[in-house]
Amino acid sequence: MTVLIFGGTGGLGGELARQAGPRAVAAGRRDADLRDRAAVFALVARVAPAVIINAAYRQDDWVVTADGAGHVAAAAVAAGARLVHVSSDAVFSGAPGRYDETCVPVPGTVYGAAKAAAETAVRAVDPGAVVARTSLIVGGPGTVIAARVHAGGVFFTDDVRCPVEVGDLAAALLELAGSGQAGICHVAGADAVSRFELAARIARRDGVPASKVVAGMRTAAGAGDVQLDCTATQARLRVVLRGARTFLPAP
């Protein structure tokens, strides 16, 4: 069974390819620009995958994030491929608290709006697809949040998320791809922690001086406390979505 991974050159895409093994085809922008519908269709036709996982996005590019998701969904339907689309907790903002799969997106940022638009496009084009919302993805030093910790800076104490370990997330997405699930699934870690606590734990793991992780309060627009409630999805998964306090040492 061939698995085509859009965003295959990123941290999550690389882990998906590693876990899927020789059946994986990891596609980056050079293989198909998601802004180009014809290029997406051509790649899918050439690879003829049984499963497509779309982990591609760009925070500063609406067309890649939103329109590109629609292009991938349409190509998946045309090829008869199973689709798992990776979304984000950025689709929520407003009142702090926990959000389950029934909650309607209310984004507070342009990126969050693009991810919400992508969800709408995918579900309209391919009702059988899985839309998997996740949170901050924690991997090695080269992944986004870890790289920020290594660079040093201010991390908010009042910005709460449910970080997920990249290997757990990849395993869950591949399990969902092989299941009969459809629609929204929440696939994030079990613990709600602040960005500051998460950064401190990553610094401890990677030997980064604690002085490089500075506590601050959030001042930018957008949600400060968004916790994905994964209870319903976790109950259907064999993979255990561990919390940050489990997969990272205490600071």
Summarize the topology.
Layout: E1 3-6, H1 11-20, E2 24-27, H2 37-47, E3 51-54, H3 62-79, E4 82-88, E5 97-99, H4 110-125, E6 130-134, E7 137-138, H5 144-151, E8 153-156, E9 160-161, E10 164-165, H6 166-177, E11 183-186, E12 193-194, H7 195-206, E13 213-216, E14 226-228, H8 231-235, H9 244-247
Parallel strand pairs: 1-2, 1-3, 3-4, 4-6, 5-14, 6-11, 7-10, 8-13
Antiparallel strand pairs: 9-12
Helix pairs in contact: 1-6, 2-3, 3-4, 5-7
Spell out the key features of this protein.
251 residues, alpha/beta, Rossmann fold, 6-stranded parallel sheet, two-stranded parallel ribbon, 9 helices, globular
Please tell me the total number of domains.
1
Mean pLDDT: 95
Q: What is the CATH fold-level name? A: Rossmann fold
Overall CATH class: Alpha Beta
Give start-end ranges of low-pLDDT stretches.
none
**What value does the Rg take, in angstroms?**
17 Å
* Beginning-to-end CA distance, first to last residue: 42 Å
CATH architecture designation? 3-Layer(aba) Sandwich
Describe this structure in words.
By secondary structure, the protein is of the alpha/beta class. It has a single domain (3-247), classed as NAD(P)-binding Rossmann-like Domain (Rossmann fold, 3-Layer(aba) Sandwich). Helices cover 38% and strands 20% of the residues. It has nine helices and 14 strands. The protein has helices at residues 11-20, 37-47, 62-79, 110-125, 144-151, 166-177, 195-206, 231-235, 244-247, and strands at 3-6, 24-27, 51-54, 82-88, 97-99, 130-134, 137-138, 153-156, 160-161, 164-165, 183-186, 193-194, 213-216, 226-228. The strands form five sheets. Strands 2-1-3-4-6-11 form a six-stranded parallel sheet, with helices on both faces. It has a two-stranded parallel ribbon with strand order 5-14. A two-stranded parallel sheet has the order 7-10. Helix 1 packs across helix 6, helix 2 packs parallel to helix 3 (62-79) and helix 3 runs parallel beside helix 4. The longest helix has 18 residues, at 62-79.
